[in-house]
Design a protein that fits this description.
The structure is a single chain. It is flat and about 65 Å long. The chain is built from 10 helices and 13 strands. By secondary structure, the chain is α+β, with helices and mostly antiparallel strands. The strands form 4 sheets. The protein has a 4-stranded mixed beta sheet, with helices on one face.
Length: 397
């Protein structure tokens, strides 16, 4: 009776109830569409037992968040090139034609932060407001606390963490024995790099700097070991000039980007391609969306396959645990997989202010460890290296 009343007597309904009519209509549409199966749903139902889907995304150098990451690192590099012991924390935010830099710097170097920012924007390819940013005409505000040291002054040696931090490392041999990165993350990143190469080489003159990609892969899981089977769908959204049509963009991106990056054996007639599904993408960068350093930390790490401590990598000198310790956790994870001790592994390290060593370490091989191990308790505050869980017996001479 409720639906009958609203659907047939809507024109006579008082104004206060009009907002309710909208939601009734939405419910009706959902009820109708509930029985209609999309191509993706049919493909999902066709997957075998033990199969699952996982997707990762990436962004190009012109994306507003990644633009800010690069500006932060450009400032860091400029200081480290003059003074390798510089202490730098630099964050950037961008919107429209405005760039703002914040942070704290302690260094002997003499760097023009504004000049570094403009040069980096130019190198990325933003040379007009129509594209999203003009490196010459944009406003740059620098609000950085800079402690300039004398050339003959010595840096204070820091043997401990200045801040707390939770960092992670991850590695997997699901598809190769060298990079040990998740395949979804690797392919999404390579698609962005391919777009950048075609734009910088001017092979595709209609490409602009901003772009995003996403790759979903069907995996199998057997005895906790995962293997990629096929690419389920691919999404590429790329900024472009106004003179090119969407059909030409889709055809070119599929043939010269997607099929050049993704191995042919992973693509089949069921793979779905989404190229600029929302239509024209002329204006990008900070004009389209605000940008901020550290807002693409999942893109910078493992594409969602592992947790993240939350701190940005960009704009921080090697003395910051949120960056250097995260790299070392990746080194440890990669070493464990490369040595054949497990197929994939995640590692966490936890630091507290004033501590030289991590106060907590966690390693998880997801049930893929190839050795029998038995945990042994230890005191991390007194031991420099974790005791080995597996000890080889000494051979008799």
């Amino acid at each position: 009776f409720f639906f009958f009343f609203f659907f047939f007597f809507a024109p006579k309904t008082p104004k206060p109830l009009k907002c309710g009519l909208y939601w009734v209509g939405r419910v009706k549409a959902l009820m109708i569409s509930h029985h209609k199966k999309s191509e993706d749903m049919v493909s999902l139902e066709a997957m075998g037992a033990g199969h699952f889907l996982f997707a990762s995304e990436s962004v190009g150098e012109g994306h507003p968040d990644k633009l800010c990451d690069q500006l932060s690192d450009a400032v860091l590099d400029a200081y480290l090139s003059q003074d390798p012991q510089s202490k730098v924390v630099c964050d950037i935010t961008a919107k429209g034609n405005l760039i703002m830099a914040f942070g704290e710097i302690k260094s002997k170097a003499n760097v023009s932060i504004e000049q570094v920012i403009r040069q980096t924007i130019r190198d990325i390819g933003y040379n007009s407001k129509e594209k999203g940013l003009d490196w010459e005409k944009c406003s740059v505000i620098v609000n950085v606390d800079i402690q300039r040291l004398k050339p003959d002054a010595d840096h204070e040696e820091e043997k401990h963490s200045a801040t707390q931090g939770i960092v992670f490392g991850y590695a997997t041999d699901e598809w190769d024995k060298e990079s040990l990165f998740p395949l979804t993350h690797y392919l999404a990143t390579q698609l962005c790099l391919r777009l950048t190469e075609l734009r910088r080489s001017k092979e595709l003159i209609w490409l602009r700097p901003d772009c995003k990609t996403q790759v979903a892969i069907e995996y199998s899981k057997n005895n906790n070991v995962i293997k990629p089977l096929r690419v389920f769908n691919v999404l590429v959204s790329t900024q472009h000039e106004k003179f090119v049509g969407q059909e030409d963009i889709k055809k070119t991106v599929i043939e010269r980007v997607i099929k050049k990056v993704i191995p042919a054996e992973l693509l089949d007639d069921k793979t779905v391609y989404y190229v600029n599904p929302s239509g024209s993408f002329n204006t990008g960068g900070p004009t389209a969306d605000a940008g901020l350093t550290g807002r693409k930390i999942v893109v910078d790490s493992y594409g969602g396959w592992a947790p993240h401590g939350g701190s940005a990598y960009s704009g921080k000198d090697p003395g910051k645990v949120s960056r250097c310790a995260a790299y070392y956790c990746r080194y440890v994870a990669k070493s464990l997989v490369a040595a054949g001790l497990c197929h994939r592994v995640k590692m966490q390290a936890v630091y507290v202010p004033g501590s030289e060593r991590p106060k907590s370490i966690f390693v998880d091989s997801f049930g893929t460890c190839l050795l029998y191990t038995s945990p042994s308790p230890r005191d991390l505050s007194t031991s420099r290296m974790p005791s080995s869980a597996c000890k080889k017996k000494k051979k008799k001479k």
